[in-house]
Amino acid sequence: MAHQLNVSNDGPDILILAGAAVGVIVAWHQPRNPMGWILLATMGRIALSNDASFYSVADYRLHHGTLPLGWVAVLLQPAWAPTIVLLGLAILLFPDGRPPSPRWRWVLLVYLVVRLIWLIWALALAATAIIGHDIRVDANERG
After folding, report:
1. I need a labelling partner for 61 at 20 to 30 A (CA). Which of 3, 46, 134, 135 fits?
2. Domain residue limits at 22
3. What is the mean pLDDT of residues 95-102?
C-alpha cells in the first residue's frame, strides 16, 4: 500500500508537527491571541485531510469500497479547503490576531464570506459524489 500511496516523503508530517508546536506554544502563553488557535486548527485540518485522502485511496482504490466508513473519509477529504481559509486568515490577522487597522475589517468580512461560499461548494461536491455513489479515487501511481 505504501508504494501505491507514495508516502515516502515526510515533509508534510514535519510541517504539521512544527506548525502545531508553534500553535501550542502561542495558545498556551497567550490564550486570547487567536493566532495560536488558528495555527492549531490549520495543522489539524492538514492532518485530517491527508489521513482522509489515504483512507479514501485504501477503501475505494484498493478495496473497492468495502472498508468501513469510507464515505466519511470522502466527506472529510476536502478538509484542505478550510486549511486555505485558515492560512489566509492567519495572514490577515498576523501578528496579534486583529486586522492591522479598523479599515481592514471589511476586507476580513469579504474574505470570510467568499471563503464560506467556497467551503460549502467543496463539501457539496463531496456529498454529491457520496449520494450518487460516484466516488473515483486517483491513486497517483507514479514511482
Report:
1. 46
2. 2-131
3. 84
